């Protein structure tokens, strides 16, 4: 297999500092958070508006990349399943998908709703919901 190199476009700034504090999904009580984009990417934010719905792609940098099976939703009463049929952050390539809404834009910082990613999580990309 070949290697793929990615460079984060920004970082999450959140009150969530450990996995135990984070809800499983953003709509389950995750706080609003800031995305601090790299200053040299300011032009990439052109056209973004408050109210836009986005999909953030993040890199779960604290994930266990050796995990192949999990109990869904960390419930030991549920049978083990392969990570490719779950939303577990622990997986070979721990890419997170987060549907959010833009709440505010301040320069290269964008405040978004309901983000369950931890403080410092690298942001890989942003896509509009279409």
Give an account of the 3D structure.
This protein has 130 residues and is an all-beta fold. The chain has one domain (10-63, 92-128): YaeB-like (Elongation Factor Tu (Ef-tu), domain 3), CATH 2.40.30. The protein is built from no helices and 8 strands. The strands form 2 sheets. The protein has a 6-stranded antiparallel beta barrel. It has a two-stranded antiparallel sheet with strand order 4-5. The relative contact order is 0.35.
Assign a percent range to the helix content: under 10%
Uncertain segments are none
Which sheet architecture does the biggest sheet show?
6 strands, antiparallel, barrel
**What is the helix/strand order?**
EEEEEEEE
- Span between N and C termini? 32 Å
CATH architecture: Beta Barrel
User: What is the oligomeric state here?
Assistant: single chain
CATH C-level category: Mainly Beta
Q: What's the β-strand tally? A: 8
Q: Let me know the CATH homologous superfamily.
A: YaeB-like
Q: What is the percentage of strand-forming residues?
A: 25-35%
Q: Which structural class do you get from the secondary structure elements?
A: mainly beta
By DSSP (H or I, 4+ residues per run), the number of helices equals 0
CATH topology: Elongation Factor Tu (Ef-tu), domain 3
Shape: globular
* Average pLDDT over all residues: 91
Instruction: Tell me the radius of gyration.
Output: 15 Å
Number of discrete domains: 1
Order of strands in the sheet with the most strands?
1-2-7-6-3-8
